[in-house]
């Protein structure tokens, strides 16, 4: 028996799908991400940021600035 497999989708498609699934899950819980969170998710979906970079930016955004 020969099974043919479809090629894996490009990384950009997988990123977009993962972001869409995550946002759908959050919204199914009755929540809406902040505009900052949404913009970072979109940057991930476009391949401009990886998730670790997005987390670092989101953490910095919400962490209070402490003067040196």
Describe this structure in words.
60% of the residues lie in helices and 0% in strands. With 68 residues, the chain is mainly α. The protein has helices at 11-28, 35-45, 51-62.
Relevant terms:
mainly alpha, 60% helix, 68 residues
Helix and strand topology:
Layout lengths: L10 H18 L6 H11 L5 H12 L6
The percentage of residues in β strands lies in under 5%
Low-confidence stretches: none
Number of helices: 3
Large-scale geometry = elongated
What separation lies between the terminal Cα atoms?
Answer: 68 Å
Provide a short characterization of the protein structure:
With 68 residues, the chain is mostly helical. The protein has 3 helices and no strands. It starts with 10 loop residues before the first helix and ends in a 6-residue tail after the last helix.
